[in-house]
Amino acid sequence: MTERIDGHTILIGLMAYPIRHSMSPTMHNNAFAKLGLNYVYLAFDVTNDKLPDAINAIRTLDMRGSNVSMPNKQKVIPLLDKLDPAAEMIGAVNTIVNDNGVLTGYTTDGTGFMQALKDENLNIIGEKMTLAGAGGAGTAIAVQAALDGVKEISIFNAKDSIWENAKRNVEMINEKTNCKATLHDIDDKEDFRKEIADSIIYCDSTGVGMKPLEDLTLVEDPTWFRPDMIVFDTVYAPRTTKLMTVAKQAGVKHVFNGLGMMLEQGAQAFKLWTGEDMPVEYIHDLLFS
Ligand code: NAD
């Protein structure tokens, strides 16, 4: 690392709280080193109250950009100069690019999800998806899938604080894309079963299955799944969630955790900052083998 840093090294940040557990610094710094790029990626504890100063520092220090994560993904929007259309629709930003003082906000969670499927040679364009969850990850996945040409999305959510956001997502997708989106109550199990049975892909973006809920899954019955479908959990710790176990019991061929999505959202940000393709397989092996 010290061999790489000199007077020309370009800084990229990660602004969130808490953030010290993040794998992003390891991912990006190893990718810079592998490609011989003179960048460094550092994590900063940034809460909402520090965010305006932190964003201004991107301009002041001529940083190339930053990732932002919770609690800043929505709050950062008014502090930027421009938004990518998908970020505007989703109402959240996870990547900022600084072009000579002009800050543009992007969101790469949705494109990361779509790319993770492409990496497995799986096509969901023109098909139907059932999606559990309409929070940050669920919104990004639904909007990007709709923009990319998924034909129909049935979104299931609990009648909790996210329900209004789920309603907004459905209205926005129906208004702005050719995809038909519908909203369903996740407690209506028969409706949930039927919509999954009619879909090529079931994706869970709720975090149920992640610690401390690692013994839980929203779908407990393997007969809800068909072997020819895709089951995707956005959770990547643990590597095999309860949902994935149920899907495997059903003989589902294409069962994924959120690792591919996590790597690809990073790779999309890497490309926006550097113009280069992240060596995804190398990073995957480095972090996870
Ligand atoms: P969020 O808080 O914004 O949304 C959570 C969603 O889950 C909401 O729709 C909520 O209604 C639903 N939910 C929560 N508890 C539930 C329960 N017990 N039953 C049914 N629904 C429930 O969270 P988020 O930022 O969208 O993250 C969700 C998950 O996605 C987390 O596990 C996170 O780690 C993961 N994630 C993964 C990636 C990746 O790259 N793989 C990226 C972003 C998020």
UniProtKB/TrEMBL annotation:
Binding annotation for NADP(+): 133-137, 234, 258
Active site residues according to the UniProt entry: 73
This protein's UniProt keywords: Amino-acid biosynthesis, Aromatic amino acid biosynthesis, NADP, Oxidoreductase
GO molecular function terms attached to this record: shikimate 3-dehydrogenase (NADP+) activity
Residues that, per the record, bind shikimate: 22-24, 69, 94, 109, 236, 265
CDD domains: NAD_bind_Shikimate_DH (cd01065)
Shikimate dehydrogenase substrate binding N-terminal domain ranges (all copies): 14-96
Ranges of residues in domain SDH C-terminal: 258-287
The protein's Enzyme Commission number: 1.1.1.25
Job of this protein: Involved in the biosynthesis of the chorismate, which leads to the biosynthesis of aromatic amino acids. Catalyzes the reversible NADPH linked reduction of 3-dehydroshikimate (DHSA) to yield shikimate (SA).
HAMAP family: Shikimate_DH_AroE (MF_00222)
Similarity section: Belongs to the shikimate dehydrogenase family.
Subunit structure: Homodimer.
PANTHER family: BIFUNCTIONAL 3-DEHYDROQUINATE DEHYDRATASE_SHIKIMATE DEHYDROGENASE, CHLOROPLASTIC, SHIKIMATE DEHYDROGENASE
Protein name (record): Shikimate dehydrogenase (NADP(+))
Naturally occurring in which organism (per UniProt): Companilactobacillus mishanensis
Gene designation: aroE
